Structure formats: structure tokens, C-alpha cells
Amino acid sequence: MEYFRRTNSFFAAAFVLLLAVGLMAPNWFSYLTTISLAKALVVIGLVILLRAGLVSFGQGLYYCLGGYSVGIAGHYLQWTDGFLVLLIAMVVSGIVAAILGLLLCRYREIFFAMLTMAFSMILYGILVKSVGLGSTDGFNIHSVSFFGWEPGTDKLGLIVYFLACLAALIVAVLMHRYFHSPVGFAGEAIRENEIRVEYLGVSPNRIIFSKYILAAVLAGAGGGLTALASGHVDPEMAYWTTSGEFVFVALLSGTAHVAAVFIAAFLFEIIRTYAFDLAPYNWQMILGATLLLIIFFLPKGLWSIFTIRRAGGGVK
Amino acid sequence: MVKSNSFGRRVQFLAIFFSFVFLAVGSGPNSAQAADDSKFTVGVVTFLSGGAAGPFGVPSKNAADLVIETLNEGKMPAPYDSKGIAGMTIEAEVVDEAGGGTKQVGEYRNLVQRKNVDAVIGYISSGDCLAIAPVAEEMQALTIFFDCGTPRIFEENSYKYVFRTGLTATIDSVAAARYILDQKPDLKTVAGINQNYAWGHDSWNDFEASIKVLKPDVEVVTEQFPKIYAGQYGAEISALMLKDPEVIHSSFWGGDMEGLVLQGSARGLFEGRTGILTTGETAMFRLASEMPEGTVLGARGPFGVYAPSNDLNDWLRTEYTKRYDTPPTYPAYKMTQAILGLKSAVEKAAKGKEGKPSTEEIIAAFENLEFEAPSGTVRMSLGKGHQAIQEMVYGQFTNEGGKPGVKNVKRYPAECVNPPDGITSVEWIQKGLKQTECK
Asked: Which residue of chain A has the CA closest to B6?
């Protein structure tokens, strides 16, 4: 309990700090932070699966579904309330995951990874063929309101930033609890030895099913937030390279702590934007080198900086 | 699971982390430089990596380097022989267009706020253009699209801060339809092979609709949509040969187009059938010996071999070829056109004034502007004065005497291939391409 309280107060402090930064920082910085918070939500979902030993190369499916749900709700149905469309994004992602999960929860390892990727590429293919939705060009999201109040385009960025901070706070607190709950640890048990888990009277498939849906809902929220922030959606969101980016951030963060994901997502965006700036021709090299360094020196991700320094006493 | 003693370390780590972040935010060329009147900074965004880099990104980036350097030296032919832009030195901030819409919106914000550029010239992908336009409006930053083709930008919205000096994709298809019917008045069958993405769909739909309007009895025998960057078109070529159309329309570009030409020629696809390659001009020198005689080649405007004879064009062809060992293709022309359009607008706004003109003044000067480019006169007359129109040219490839060139060149005046302002391209085509005069 003491542990949760301390972590929660730490999350709350980070939240307040982020709000303050949002009010002071320039627009490009708050946009970058919004995007990294949104992507962190997706990656937390991925980390939930990683803790159960599963790598999804298809979180782009739900990221894209979330984005398109927000876009279609606003553009074609005229539902513009920010909270409502985010909720729709999460529900749509959850429903699709509940259907696909029935099949996916039976697969492990490379088969799971390939199947998830296949499903996201199917969505990509459908969207490319949908001329009404702008095919590969996608479409813009014009107006967003909050409980009937419509912020102008100059304020919208900041409002979406606050919304992303709030979403991040809620997800961080809940997921931190989840990681330390019995069902949270069940994932690690499944990764270690699935047969033993079954002997304990728990169904691994059912646990993976629930984790898959949870991950999808988080990815849907992340995609929805990204769509609100950038004002545009296109099928690229479901392309496998987008999913690969999430896996990259998950490797950067490791699975040890929720906070690590936010830090990793932010670092990823910062590294990438400065790589674009410093080496317009070779920015991919900088990203690749970062990933290599992480794999060599921090194979368990960023959070192991703390655990290594603490580990003097042999704590693993 | 260590649950103690970590709080202090975390705070320590976070303190270090955030001080790093603030350092990153605070450093770099920042607002202090905003008021520098001796420089005019331009963000140049074009593909430097990925499949579009070779055929489009690199030629346009090369042209930007060449033109900006020459302008700064004041060595361009008239009317651009004054130094820089209104006496200010031009500085370019080059950014890779890779990464998709969300990423590019972020990079755009960086350019405008972190780099404090005075204008942004860029964007090849129509998706990126659609994503950037509202952000340009929000940030009130002058933005010039140089290449992206979708007519949706100014047809679905009207923008104050966004200009496009390049032509829309509709023109390619409408003019291609007019050209092929001028060459083959008794055309019976056509077929299409286009990439399965927005550009391919739009190009084919516009072409098909234009043909149907101009000659309703033409039959479409097959339409193929292989995926972009597929590289192998064996099955599609078989399907096309089986249906045996008189004319094959393709908006393939870059490696895909070259692949289609090589594989199609090897199998005799273009024997007795005429290919229309709307971007074919980019390959006519490299594939001179493989390109079938009589293939209809487009250059997305009066660019490349279709550029009129003038001093600017002579300068661009000579200097570009000298520096990069290859003649400039249409992306190079389009980039040159965007930079010259910007120069014209800024200098018009700066005339008779002290110091750097404001963005609002530049916009007022840019709207409905007429300026000269290597491709002839460009008029900003669509989209409330924000979208360029120009004549459109098609011709047929010929390699007689081993010298690649074009024959039967036909020039269509701008009004003949562009919709009038205020009506969308699709409506214009469906209503019979009638609202405009055509010789």
C-alpha cells in the first residue's frame, strides 16, 4: 500500500509538472509531448503483452482504429465531443479485439506476432481501398469540442495536451496497480511456465484474451489522442512500421515499470526529432544506434538503470 | 521486487532527465533570431529516404540547393537577377518528409517555432499536404506546396497561409484524355494500370471519367491496381494483353513505372497498343532504348522536355546538368518554380518598403500573382488565388536516329485543362468539361 501511495504521489507530481510545462513550453514541444504520451498509452498495452511473453507486431491495428473512429465520428457523424470520441475509439478497439482475441489467444511466440501483424495489414489494405475515406491520403479532423465548448484552433493543441496528460495519469495509476495485481503477475507466470499456471487452475488463454483486449483499448485511446492532436488520420497508422515503432519504444522502456514507458516514449520522440534536425539524410542511423546501445547495455530497458544501481546487494 | 529506497533515486533521475529536456528545448536557434532582417529562412521538406526519394525527393532537393545558391550569388537570369530574396540571404533548413502525416505535423511545428523559418516549401505526398494545411493555418505560417497533386486541398477548404505553385493531378488525366482522343479520334478500347493508393485511384478515375465524357462509346476493358512498389507486373501485363486494349493508361511513377516499361516492352505489351505514362518523362533518357516508340509521355506540366524555350529554362537545364550529371526532371522544375514564386511574392511585397515584409503582406502579394518560371508563366488563379494553373503538354516518345525526344507535341492552354475557380475537379469532369474554352 505504502508503495502504491508513493508511486501515485510521484505520478501526481509528474502530472502537475507536465501541466506546468504545457503552459510554458512552445507549441512544438507540447505537440511532441502529446504525441509521446499518446504513443506511451499504446506501448503500455504492448508491455502488458510483453510481460506475458507475447510480442504484438500489430498494435497499429488498434492505434489506427482509434484514430479513424475519432475521425469518422467527427467528420461523418458530427460527433465532436473530445471525451465522447475518445470513448468511442476505446470501445471500437475493444470490440474488435474481443473478436480477434478469440483466435489470437490460442497462439504464442512468432505465430502470435505474425497474426497480429497480418490483421493490422488487413485493416491497412481495406483503408487503402476506401476511396470515400481518402485512401492513402486519409482525411482531416476539423472540429473538436468539450462539453459543448469549442476551443479555437489556437487553443485546441493545449487542450488536447491537457487531455493527454489526464489520460496518461489515469492509465499510469491504474496500470501500475494492474502490474502488481494477481492477474498482472499471471502474465509473467504464463511467460515462465504455462503448464504450471494451468495446474494452478487458471486458464492462460483466458488471461491472454483479457490482456489482449486491455492492450487494444489502450492503443485505441492512444490512436484517438494522436488523431485529435495532429488533426489528420491516414492508413499509415495501421502499417507494420508504425507497429514496429511501438515495439521499439517497448524495448527502450523494458517491462519493469509503467513510468519507464512514458520516459521511453518521450525519449524516442525527442531523439527522433533531433535526429531529423541534425542528420536529415541519416536520422535512421541515429535511431538504430540508440536501439543497439539499449540492447547491449540495458537489455532490460531504461528502468534497469535504477535496478542496476540498486543491485549492489544482488537484487535481481 | 524492491519496494524501498528507490523514491529518492527516482526523483534524482527525473531531475536530471528534465533538466536535459529543458536544455534541449532552450538551446538551438530560438526566438532570438526571429527579427534578423538580413536573412530569409526557408524550410525545405522533401523525401530524402524511402521509395519517393530517388525519383522525386533528391531531384527537388538538388534543385533547391542549386537555385538558392545561385539566387544568393545574384547570378540567375532576369527577372530574378537580384541577390537573394529582396536583398536578404536565403537560408534553407532541409527536413526529410518520411514518417507520415503525424510525424510531419510535428516536424512542421519544429520548423516554424524552433527554427523560426519565414516560409516552408515542401511536400510531395498528398497525404502530408492535407495534414499540414490546417496546421499552417493554425500557426499562421506561409507554406508553399511544390509537388503534391490532390485537388482536395483547395477544393474542400480555403486556406489563407497555404499556396501551391505546382499543378493538380486532375490536369494530367484530363489533358491525357484530350490528347489521346486528338491522336486517335476513333478510339474504341482503353485499359488502366495504376497503383493501389490515392494517387493511382484518383488518376485513373479522372482519366476514365474524362474519356467517357469526351467520347462516351469508348469501352474500358480492364483496370488493374497492383500495389505500390510491387516491382513485378507479370500478372497484370498478362491481363492487359489478354484484353487487348488500344490504349493503356498508367500513372505509375519512379521505379514502378520503369519496371512496367521494361517488363511490358520485353513482352510486347506496347506493340500495337499505345501506352500513356503520365509521369513518363522522368524515364525517357534513362530508358531511351527500352521505351517503346510512340508512347505518350507526360511531365505533370510544362516541365522537362516540354518546358518552353526561355532564359530561365536554358539556365536550369545547363547548370543542373553540369552539377548533377543528369538533366532536371519535373520535380526539379517544380521546386525551382516554388522558390521563384516565393521570391516574386516577397519582392512584390517588399517594394518601396523598409525591412522584411510581414507574412500578411507576402500573402497579399502572392494571391493571384503571375510570375515567370523555367516552365513559362505561372498564374495563381484557383483556390481564391492560391493554386497555380499552367498549360499542360503531352507528346509521344521518339528515338529516331538514336536521339531520345518527343514528337506530335500538343500544348493545351491552362483554361482547357483546369476547372474554373469554385467548382471541384470531379464535378467539372462529370458536367462534361464544358465550363472552359478549349481550342
From this structure: A306
CB contact under 8 A, A32 and B106: yes
Write the pLDDT tens digit of every residue in A41-87.
Answer: 999 999 999 988 898 998 999 999 999 999 888 877 878 888 888 99
Per-residue HEC secondary structure of A55-105 comes to CCCCCHHHHHHHHHHHHHHHHCCCCCEHHHHHHHHHHHHHHHHHHHHHHHC
User: Residues B404-415: pLDDT tens digits?
Assistant: 888 899 998 888
- The answer to whether the CB of B391 falls within 8 A of the CB of B414 is yes
For the stretch A106-143, pLDDT in tens is: 888 899 999 999 999 999 989 888 877 877 788 888 77
* Residue partners of B35: CB distance under 8 A and separation at least 6: none
Question: What's the angle, vertex CA A72, arms to CA A69 and CA A73, rounded to 5?
Answer: 80
CATH class entry, domain A2-304? mainly alpha
In B, which residues are within 8 Å of A270 by CB distance?
21, 24
For residue A291, what pLDDT is reported?
A: 82
Residue A225 identity: L
- Strands B143-145 and B119-122 come out as parallel
User: In angstroms, rounded to a whole number, what is the distance separating the alpha carbons of residues A150 and A154?
Assistant: 11
Instruction: Give the CA radius of gyration of chain B.
Output: 24
Question: Measured between beta carbons, which residues in chain B are less than 8 angstroms from residue A236?
Answer: 100-101, 127
Low-confidence stretches of chain B (pLDDT beneath 70): 1-35, 435-437, 439
The H or E element containing residue B396 is strand B392-398
Which site among A4, A35, A121, A137 would you substitute to test the B interface, given the most B Cβ atoms closer than 10 Å to its Cβ?
A137
DSSP3 helix / strand / coil % (chain B, rounded to 5): 45, 20, 35
Q: What is the CA angle B416-A135-A81, rounded to 5?
A: 115
All three cell numbers of A314: 544482488
Helix and strand element counts for chain A (H, E): 13, 2
Q: Is A231 left (phi over 0), alpha (psi -120 to 50) or beta?
A: left
The reply to whether ipTM tops 0.85 is no
Q: Do B5 and A226 touch (CB under 8 A)?
A: no
**Which region holds residue B388: left if phi is over 0, alpha if psi is between -120 and 50, else beta?**
beta
Cell of A73: 465520428
8-state DSSP, B248: E
How far apart, in Å, do the first and last CA atoms of chain A sit?
22
For β-strands A139-140 and A232-233, DSSP reports them as: antiparallel
Q: Which of B25, B95, B106 sits opposite A25 (nearest CB)?
A: B25
Taking CB atoms and an 8 Å limit, are B6 and A139 in contact across chains?
Answer: no
Q: What is the model's pLDDT at position A159?
A: 86
Domain boundaries B170-299+392-430, corresponding CATH code: 3.40.50.2300
- Nearest by CB to residue B9, choosing from A274, A306, A315, is A306
Segment (H or E) for A23 = helix A2-24
Domain B33-167+308-389: assigned CATH number: 3.40.50.2300
CA distance B154 to B129: 11
Chain B residue nearest residue A18, CA to CA: B18
φ/ψ of B346, rounded to 5, equals: -65, -40
All residues of chain B having their beta carbon less than 8 Å from the beta carbon of residue A2 are 3
Size of interface A-B (CB pairs under 8 A): 136
Q: Is B88 strand, coil or helix?
A: strand
Nearest CB to B95; choose among A28, A142, A280: A280
Q: How far apart are CA A14 and CA B364, in angstroms?
A: 46
User: Are the C-beta atoms of B88 and B37 separated by less than 8 Å?
Assistant: yes
Strand A139-140, strand B219-224: pairing: unpaired
Q: Which residues contact B253 (CB under 8 A, 6 or more apart)?
A: B55, B56, B279, B282
